[in-house]
Amino acid sequence: METATTLDEIQDPLFIAENWMKEGRDVAIATVVETWGSAPRPTGSHLVIDSEGNFQGSVSGGCVEGAVVTEALDVLESGKPRMLEFGVADETAWRVGLSCGGRIKVYVERLG
Q1: Are 79 and 73 within 8 A, CB to CB?
Q2: 3-state SS string over the chain?
């Protein structure tokens, strides 16, 4: 017997990733692995991305998601994981919007 899907499951990036993979989509996951200072999302936060650029979840509350999605698409194509770092002292952080004063490290890998 199937259980009803809850609102939490509908919004849970890991649940979404599982469903996307069942649909045959290529999926990458980005995970916050370290934070320093005023980081917008805690360690363990996830963003899942499919090969079409669809995404669910958050690693930075919207500050660097665009850059992470771009990197995830490269990870899906190459199959090689990447460690990304964004911080206020990093020129990239200002360009992509992480100006909150903190730093985050995000690990991006292909699932499946």
Answers
A1: no
A2: CCCCCCHHHHHCHHHHHHHHHHCCCCEEEEEEEEEECCCCCCCCCEEEEECCCCEEECCCCCCCHHHHHHHHHHHHHHCCCEEEEEECCCHHHHHHCCCCCCEEEEEEEECC
Tokens, residue 65:
């998601």
pLDDT of residue 1: 47
Residue 110 has pLDDT above 50, yes or no: yes
In degrees and rounded to multiples of 5, residue 16 shows phi and psi of -60, -45
Global pTM exceeds 0.90: no
Distance between CA 110 and CA 112 in Å, rounded?
A: 7
> Tokens for 78?
């190459």
Cα 29 to Cα 49: distance, rounded to the nearest angstrom = 6
- β-strands 103-110, 46-50 pairing: unpaired
Strand order in the sheet with 55-57: 55-57, 46-50, 27-36, 103-110, 82-87
